Structures are given as structure tokens and as C-alpha cells.
């Protein structure tokens, strides 16, 4: 995964690793959970079940084990927060690594500072991390020499919807309770900060009807109003597609197909209107989802398929 964050499967393995051989940090997480009514037996049952799961992500595991949701959120936060590092987003790192679609997209959004927030673009993400917001905010400050309030005002105009929640808000989003990016994690001395980040994560299965969740309502509205929808690094999970209510008509859709084999592509077609290889792509009467070849990453996809004007 780009920017130092683990994939869903890697996140699951990292949590399993912590539970199988708990170090001093893991014990701090476990001790923190005890303050919220989770006894040692709860943690052991969670560790045993997660260690034997056949699921490929912690979210999928928690879907059918709701009694472990609060414990799961804390371990998700304990793995992801240390991965908040400024270095993978820095200019130096961008010059050395391929695949930085943040930078590419940001340059396509080039404008006068006071018009930056007028860019006709919205983001809907299933990720918990805040790297996109941090990148855009830092880049605006560096490139235009503006203060926090001015940059925040521009970014507030560009919707970034985390339908599954996020690791808390950034300081420019919430001056009182915001947590700085790449600030690390100190469970003992910043207990409330860690707790806020963990509880801000939303395991979507906590609510049966996505229509009751404000973030999903916003995401559905944005997609229905869009002229183009691009899927970057999306797994095309049937449940997520159903809950997002992705439009199947009058909207041009294209997405990364990284690692997807032939039958998997056909299954995506059943969900989103993708036509098999060999059919004519285009914006005719029947919109289709254009999937990129399996080796194309997010940056290559934007350069090859996206109309960003």
C-alpha cells in the first residue's frame, strides 16, 4: 500500500502479531481497555478468535463478532496511528517513489489560492487514515504561504467523506480536540486522545441500515450529482457497493483493477456495469465501468484514464 499504511489483510495480520506476542506497547493497549470494562478474559477470547479467523480483514471479522467491536477499534487505532508519518508524504519521498497520486491530483487542481476550494472534486474513502487531508493542507501552506485558517477555509469547501470514520480530526479541523498528524501515540499520557481516535472509527456493521449514517447519505448524494466517478484502490466489495448505492446510469465510471483476474473482473461487472474485455468502452446510452489492467496502480490509472480538466 502507498504512504506506509497497511492493506486490510496486512492490518489484520499486524493485530494478530501483537496479540500473539504482546510487547510492552500491546500491554498498554490491553491495560487501557481494562479502564472501559474489558476484562482479561475478553481480550483472550478476542485474540483466540482473531487468530483462527478465515476472514481477510479485521472489519469482516468484526461483522459477525459484534461483541469484539470496541476491542477491535482500539487495536486498529494502535496499529494505524504509528503509521502516520510525514516522511512518505514529503517532497523528498515523492521524488524517490513512484505512484504518488496525491501529488499528481494536487497539481491538476492548480488554481489561484482563493479559488482552490472551487475545484469540482469530492472524495469518498473507506480508509481510516487522514493522509489526504494532511497532504492537501501542508501543500497549500507551503505553496501559497497562507495561514492555517485560510487553508482550512479552502479545504472545507472540498468534501472528503470517511464513510467508515477516521482516526480523529486534525487540529485545523478541530482546534480543541484535533490530533496532529504523525504525532505518535502515547496511551498512558494521552489517554483521552487515543480513546477519541479509536472511538471515531466506525465498524459499519454497527448500523444495519447505511441510510441512517450521515456519511453514507453524503457519499450517495455526491455520487448521484457527479459527472464522473473514479475508483482508486477500491476492493469492489459487494456489501460496500450496495451500501454506497453507486449509480448505475448516466454516470461515467472507471476504476483501478490492480490484481483482479478475469473472473473477478466479471463479478465487478455484475455489480457496477463493467463490460468484459473486447467490448467497446465509451459514454454511450449505457454507461460502463472501465477497469484498468491488473498491473496499473493509482497514479498510472489517473494519468491514463481520468479526465481531470
Structure in words:
- Among the domains are: 2-83, no CATH class; 226-305, no CATH class.
- The chain contains 14 helices and five strands.
- The chain has helices at 8-20, 24-34, 40-51, 58-63, 69-80, 91-96, 101-108, 131-144, 148-155, 191-199, 214-225, 238-244, 262-272, 298-305; strands at residues 123-125, 160-162, 228-231, 252-255, 289-291.
- The chain has a three-stranded parallel sheet with strand order 3-4-5, covered by helices on one side. It has a two-stranded parallel ribbon with strand order 1-2.
- Helix 12 links the parallel strand 3 and strand 4.
- Helix 8 (131-144) crosses helix 9 (148-155).
- The longest helix has 14 residues, at 131-144.
- The two termini are 27 Å apart.
- The model is unreliable at 276-287 (pLDDT under 50).
Amino acid at each position: 500500500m502507498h504512504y506506509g499504511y497497511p492493506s486490510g489483510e496486512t492490518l489484520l495480520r499486524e493485530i494478530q502479531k501483537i496479540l500473539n506476542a504482546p510487547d510492552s506497547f500491546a500491554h498498554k493497549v490491553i491495560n487501557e481497555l481494562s479502564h472501559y470494562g474489558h476484562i482479561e478474559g475478553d481480550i483472550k477470547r478476542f485474540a483466540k478468535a482473531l487468530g483462527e479467523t478465515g476472514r481477510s480483514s479485521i472489519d469482516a471479522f468484526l461483522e459477525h463478532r459484534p461483541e469484539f467491536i470496541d476491542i477491535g477499534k482500539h487495536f486498529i487505532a494502535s496499529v494505524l496511528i504509528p503509521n502516520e508519518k510525514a516522511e512518505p508524504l514529503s517532497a523528498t519521498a515523492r521524488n524517490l517513489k513512484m505512484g504518488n497520486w496525491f501529488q499528481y491530483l494536487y497539481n491538476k487542481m492548480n488554481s489561484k489560492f482563493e479559488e482552490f476550494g472551487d475545484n469540482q472534486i469530492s472524495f469518498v474513502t473507506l480508509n481510516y487514515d487522514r493522509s489526504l487531508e494532511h497532504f492537501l493542507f501542508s501543500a497549500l501552506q507551503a505553496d501559497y504561504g497562507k495561514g492555517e485558517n485560510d487553508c482550512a477555509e479552502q479545504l472545507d469547501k472540498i468534501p472528503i467523506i470517511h464513510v467508515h470514520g477516521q482516526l480523529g480530526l486534525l487540529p485545523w479541523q478541530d482546534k480543541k480536540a484535533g490530533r496532529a498528524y504523525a504525532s505518535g501515540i502515547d496511551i498512558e499520557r494521552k489517554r483521552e486522545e487515543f480513546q477519541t481516535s479509536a472511538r471515531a472509527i466506525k465498524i459499519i456493521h454497527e448500523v444495519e441500515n447505511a441510510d441512517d449514517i450521515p456519511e453514507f447519505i453524503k457519499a450517495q448524494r455526491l455520487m448521484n450529482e457527479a459527472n464522473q466517478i473514479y475508483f482508486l484502490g477500491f476492493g469492489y466489495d459487494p456489501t460496500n457497493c450496495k451500501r454506497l448505492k453507486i449509480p448505475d446510469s448516466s454516470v461515467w465510471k472507471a476504476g483501478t483493477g490492480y490484481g483482479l483476474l478475469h473472473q473477478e473482473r466479471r463479478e465487478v461487472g455484475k455489480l457496477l456495469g463493467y463490460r468484459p474485455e473486447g467490448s467497446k468502452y465509451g459514454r454511450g446510452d449505457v454507461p460502463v465501468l472501465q477497469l484498468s489492467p491488473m498491473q496499473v496502480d493509482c497514479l498510472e490509472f489517473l494519468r491514463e484514464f481520468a479526465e481531470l480538466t
